[in-house]
Amino acid sequence: HILSDAVRGFEGLYNLIWFSNTGYLDTTRIHRKGNGVVYRFKELPNGQFICSGTCTQFDGHAVDRIFRVHADGSTDTTFHTGVYTGIVGGYIPLDDGRVYVSGRFRRSAAPTDTLLLVRFMLDGTLDPSFSIPNFSLGALPSHPSAVVSFLYPWDDGKFIATGQFQYVNGVPRRGICMLDSTG
Description:
By secondary structure, the chain is mainly β. 0% of the residues lie in helices and 44% in strands. The strands form six sheets. A three-stranded antiparallel beta sheet has the order 3-4-7, with no helix packed on it. It has a three-stranded antiparallel beta sheet with strand order 8-9-10, with no helix packed on it. Strands 11-14-15 form a three-stranded antiparallel beta sheet, with no helix packed on it. The chain contains no helices and 16 strands. Strand 9 and strand 10 (110-120) form a beta hairpin.
C-alpha cells in the first residue's frame, strides 16, 4: 500500500497498515515495511499474526516466507520456519500457539522436500507429533502439481483439507479429506 501521511512520517510503500473500525487509516499505530509482498495473514489466538508472502526482510529483520509478527506488527524474531519458496493456501491457528499451514512450499532444512500441509511449533519448527500427510495427484494431467489450498477447522481437533490432489497417503480422496490432530 502507498501511504502519504507526511505529518506522521508514513510516506511510501508499506506492507502492513492499520485501519480504524470506521475504515480510516489508524494514526495511532505504526505501519510496517518489508521488501516484498505479504499475500496472506491470519490473527493467532494470542493477538499475533502469521504471515506469508515474498518478503525476505520485514520491519528491518530477516524473515522466512512464512513469518510471524506481534500484535503491534513488529517482527517476531523468535519464529523461524525456514520456508524460502512457495505459496500458502490456509492457516488454522491452535490455542497453544501451534499453527497448521497448507499450500505448496519448501524449507531450507530439506530443500528437495515439497510440503503441502504441516504444523509448526511456537518457534517455527515442524511439529514432530504431526505426521505430514502425503498428497499426490495420481493421473491428473491437467494439474502440474498437487497443492492443499484451504483448511477448515472441524470438531474434536479434526480439520478438512481441500485442494488439487487425488490421493492422501495412497488412499483416494479426490481433492478433499478430513485429518485428525496427528495427521
